[in-house]
Amino acid sequence: MNGKELFAIMAKGEIPPVIPFIPTIFEHSAKVIGKTPSEIAQDEDLLVESQLACYELYRHDLISIGVDIYNVEYEALGAKVKFPENEELPSISEIMVSSIDDIDKLTVPDPERDARMPMFLNAVQRINEKVGNEVIVNGTIVGPFTLASIMRGFENFVMDLVMDPDFAFKLMEFANKVSLAFAKSFIKRGVGLSINESWIAPPLLSPAFYADNVVEYEKKLIQDIKKLGQKNVALISGGDTTDILDDMITTGTSLLLADSECDRQYYKKACAKNNILMRASIASIIVESGDDAEMKRAAYEVIKDCRDYSGFIFGCGIVSYDTLPENVLKLKDIVRNYND
Predict the structure, then answer these.
(1) Structure pTM?
(2) Fewer CB atoms near the end CB (10 Å): N or C, the chain?
(3) Domain of 299: which CATH number?
(4) Which residues neighbour 255 within 8 Å (Cβ) at sequence distance 6 or greater?
């Protein structure tokens, strides 16, 4: 069965006959075609080639398109990206916002024109046209807290939320506008959508701090996206998000990541109660190691905890560039051949 058929079964509240398998593949796709992350991050044809090559190899059940996912919107705002020639990810080190006046000088980028936004839009569209009849293809955008933290610097921004909340909230409002503009262009292309918001997980933020300062902005972003006609929106944060799960659910997300550190039993009960898909994952470092026994142990722990939930999806963290393709295939074989 292909990914869309499995998701259709889950949408009816039924447990599919095989466990959906969704590794997160960004820079690893460059490895598969013998390129560097910087090469596929700057070349639409290579990005499309690399993701299609991975799908042909792994036949995973949902494709999310990205490379250096936390740079794309920021670059479109004017930040300079460093593209290393080695296996490292592209990066940005500059802080663009130092005062409230800096926010007023910024304009929401045009996703159809600015920096690499059009490249990712076109790549997602092309991939969807090629394999979208078999599998859901998602574009990726950055959540409001993470984008604001990148623009201001994480420690600076957290301090702003304490000492100058009006400034901090204005920056998150602007970040929401940027993310929504990007989302709108993906929606026009008929693809799915994931919001990446990995800087919210404890201990980076306390659960109370998240609830008081961040969740309402995520909720507004997801509500605005749904108003554009996108019914399903994934809110993705790595790390142990167990203590903020109840608040994340209020955003209206349709899919949450229970990363390897999370309390899967608590996650399962909460997701089942609210009809939310749960992508329960093992750590990507285990996949990179290629240790058969360790992969099987970790995978079986996840499956035993979650197999009885109709919304359960098996995943792993972002597959590293250095991970051998054979390791991902071994993991899929472990998941597909699991027997109670």
Answers:
(1) 0.96
(2) C
(3) 3.20.20.210
(4) 194, 232, 233, 234, 235, 236, 276, 277, 278, 279, 313
